[in-house]
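Hi,

Apologies if this is the wrong queue. I'm a grad student, and the batch job for alpha-1,2-Mannosidase from Lophotis ruficrista produced an output file that my downstream script rejects. I'm not sure whether the problem is my script or the file. Here is the sequence I used:
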Amino acid sequence: DFLLNQHYNPAFVSLQMMKHAWDNYKRYAWGLNELKPISKQGHSSNLFGNIQGATIVDALDTLYIMEMKEEFKEAKEWVEKNLDFNVNAEISVFEVNIRFVGGLLSAYYLSGEEVFRKKAVELGEKLLPAFNTPTGIPWALLNIKSGIGRNWPWASGGSSILAEFGTLHLEFVHLSHLSGNPVFAEKVMNIRKVLSRLDKPEGLYPNYLNPSSGQWGQHHVSIGGLGDSFYEYLLKAWLMSDKTDEEGKKMYYDAVQAIETHLIRKSSGGLTYIAEWKGGLLEHKMGHLTCFAGGMFALGADGAPSDKTGHHIELGAEIARTCHESYDRTSMKLGPEAFRFDGGVEAIATRQNEKYYILRPEVIETYMYMWRLTHDPKYRQWGWEAVEALEKHCRVDGGYSGIRDVYNNHESHDDVQQSFFLSETLKYLYLLFSEDDLLPFEHWVFNTEAHPLPVLHKDDGNKEENQK
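Support response: The file is valid. Your script probably expects a header line. Output copied below for reference.
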């Protein structure tokens, strides 16, 4: 067992993985958004419009934490010389916020290098026109040159998406903190106001909200895609505020209560899962993205009503186990994009278009939280199984690639090394196998792209003022 064999240091293995991912990005796709590791060229996602360098900005803090000093220095120089937001491009406000703003903020807080603060605030200012809607609920897409916004054409009746407008809070509070400009924090506090006024069906938050009318779209509820990080940011807003944001806290624990009542179910085989809610009907499907919730429940256990702390930890452990099963029940020991609990199947993908794995971090993220909060060795064991599977099936000559079907015995690679693989998957593995005093939870809160942001203590504001 590797845990008994001290020569085989798993934290060192995750550092080697980072080196392989980064060196190949540098060799074949430097300055572009992402790497195609099979064709050995750049990959561009329309999420970033024609802003470039997503992998560089997303990986800055991972390089820093892993003490890859040369690589960090090169990345910083690229940001100084080449990171340019003056482009005529339509971007995803959510993706650019969590990857670029989040990446720059944490690089600044870790290294103290002024260029990162300056670029983060500059980009934050470019995102502000997204909030120019009748309600102040931001558009999903924004042309950062013209300032014109719109929503995804497929989203229910022109709605904005809960997980997108609900996942700006941490970064925008820090932008206000670092710029001295209150407008950023005001924009995200207003989103809260709109949500508080609305009736919640069964106490649940639908995934769609119309930014013009301020009314919900379809009553679909998900703790996976379209909903996920909204809930995470309620809890983390409270933690990041040094537990002073009582509104965020109450919204989080109330939401968890509704989720437990209406969405959390147990399969006949005893696996706890979180179903999706479609206007009152349950779909017994859980997405890979939903697996982050195990870590969230455990992280929030400490602040839960006193009789509920153990229950929240237990809930986290049960979700972790279900998600581990979704990995274990595939040929490749890597989890599918979504898995079902119906028609006699449990924790298995039944549809071809749900069998892929794109190097996602959520299951490993939950292992990391569960390890830190319980120190049960199985979480490190499960993390190591994921390392072995990644090395066996996703590592290629030119980096790491996603897989089209994790139930197949033969790899069909999708040829994309996602920027979040370096930002999240490898960082969470490294933290899982490191000591707890590396980025301790009492001082740091991770944004949904795994970028650490410091807890803001009540006297911090004055300290900033005095430094000016």
